[in-house]
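TICKET: design request
STATUS: open
ATTACHED STRUCTURE:
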């Protein structure tokens, strides 16, 4: 038994489903046929019992009406022959058990031994291979006391039962074959999406992450599984692409300051350490590049933190107007030559769910970009507006603006519109990427509108926390 279980455990799911489906259908068909066979047999036997009991009642009634007449038993033969059927014997015994009258149709008298009975009895007996139904009933008359025996050969009923059993067995064998074929077909249909999923995984392993599972028009659980798998592969492909892009961009950005520092250290090591002018220049450049390198590393860390999905379900009530004013007040101290205008009355008292430090960080990124690219017009406007169930915060400058062809890429890591000017101004191209990740973490949206030479407006939109 354990060997069979071991062999069964090694089969594929398709064959396991086919075997289980076949076994289940066969058992159900066998149980149904068994019940049907039993019920039909009982019904036929009951019909024979009813028929033989009816004959007994007719004989009893006839003999009682003939009671007192001369030779009444002998004269009743014609009547008894008329009600007797094929393969049946009717016999009347006296009180000593001797046959007085016997009427038989293809049933030998010797198959059943005469026997007197004081009560009506019915039993099923066998004579070799012949199945007999026997009923005995006492006969009490004024001039006669005896027993009536009726014996019925159930040969026809047994033959019908055997034919029925053969048909049911043939049907059961056919059911085994059909259920086996149906089980294979059913398992193949059910497992086709899983097989497709397996093929897609093998194809992904061989060809790359761009392969996907074909989805049928159905909307069952397996189709949903295929959709989830494709969505997962889309996310995984984007993740790998972003990781690859991140490594390439980070290595490119970090290579420049490291190369500059390495060049100046080599210069000092060769001859510059004895030249005060070269020594001072190299140290100043190295310090500047190290500061720039530190800024890039810090921004990369901030970007990583911004991309992390928090699992904590905490509330962060933040008064938007207070946070914006606090950030502007501190930022304006660093840029006294700029004019900062606030239009925040529309959002007074509005609360959103965000960590105040994160909102401050987003605003500082936008304000820093506005200052860097303001050009000659040093004016920055921060305004707020309420929309249905949302709040909008806008940071507007009147600087050099962003060309339309560059707008779709401004949220990419290390992307800079004017790389030469950005490098001079200390930009790394990570600020807007960090801001976008932080905004999206709290269910917000960030959009940029700009016209080259006229200025840039960055809009933030957050869902409003109910009061």
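STATUS: resolved
RESOLUTION: sequence designed for all positions
ATTACHED SEQUENCE:
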């Amino acid at each position: 038994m354990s060997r069979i279980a071991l062999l069964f455990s090694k089969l594929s799911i398709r064959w396991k489903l086919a075997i289980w489906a076949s076994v289940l259908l066969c058992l159900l068909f066998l149980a149904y046929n068994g019940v049907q066979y039993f019920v039909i047999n009982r019904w036929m036997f009951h019909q024979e019992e009813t028929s033989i009991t009816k004959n007994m009642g007719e004989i009893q009634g006839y003999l009682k009406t003939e009671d007192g007449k001369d030779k009444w038993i002998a004269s009743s033969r014609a009547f008894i022959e008329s009600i007797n059927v094929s393969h049946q014997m009717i016999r009347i015994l006296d009180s000593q058990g001797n046959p007085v009258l016997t009427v038989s149709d293809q049933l030998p008298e010797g198959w059943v031994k005469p026997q007197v009975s004081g009560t009506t009895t019915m039993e099923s007996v066998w004579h070799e291979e012949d199945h007999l139904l026997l009923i005995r009933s006492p006969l009490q008359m004024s001039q006669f006391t005896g027993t009536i025996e009726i014996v019925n050969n159930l040969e026809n009923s047994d033959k019908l039962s055997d034919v029925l059993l053969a048909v049911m067995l043939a049907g059961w064998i056919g059911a085994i074959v059909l259920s086996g074929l149906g089980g294979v077909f059913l398992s193949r249909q059910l497992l086709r999406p899983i097989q497709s999923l397996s093929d897609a995984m093998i194809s992904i392993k061989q060809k790359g992450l761009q392969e996907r599972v074909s989805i049928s028009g159905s909307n069952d659980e397996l189709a949903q599984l295929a959709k989830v798998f494709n969505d997962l592969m889309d996310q995984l492909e984007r993740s790998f692409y972003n990781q690859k892009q991140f490594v390439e961009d980070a290595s490119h950005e970090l290579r420049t300051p490291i190369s500059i520092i390495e060049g100046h250290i080599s210069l000092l090591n060769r001859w510059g350490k004895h030249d005060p002018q070269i020594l001072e220049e190299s140290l100043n450049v190295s310090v500047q590049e190290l500061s720039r390198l530190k800024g890039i590393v810090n921004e990369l860390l901030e970007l990583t933190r911004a991309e992390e999905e928090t699992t904590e379900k905490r509330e962060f009530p933040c008064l938007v107007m207070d946070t914006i004013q606090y950030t502007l007040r501190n930022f304006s101290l660093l840029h006294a030559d700029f004019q900062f205008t606030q239009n925040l009355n529309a959002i007074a008292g509005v609360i959103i769910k965000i960590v105040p430090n994160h909102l401050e960080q987003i605003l500082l990124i936008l304000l820093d970009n506005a200052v860097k690219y303001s050009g000659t017009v040093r004016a920055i406007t921060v305004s707020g507006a309420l929309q249905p169930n949302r709040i909008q915060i806008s940071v507007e400058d009147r600087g050099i603006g962003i060309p339309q062809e560059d707008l779709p890429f401004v949220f990419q890591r290390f992307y800079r519109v004017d790389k030469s000017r950005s490098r001079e101004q200390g930009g790394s191209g990570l600020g807007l990427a960090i801001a976008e990740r932080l905004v999206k973490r709290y269910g917000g949206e960030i959009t940029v509108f700009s016209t080259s030479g006229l200025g840039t407006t960055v809009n933030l939109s957050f869902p409003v926390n109910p009061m």
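CLOSING REMARK: The mean pLDDT is 79. The chain has eleven helices and twelve strands.
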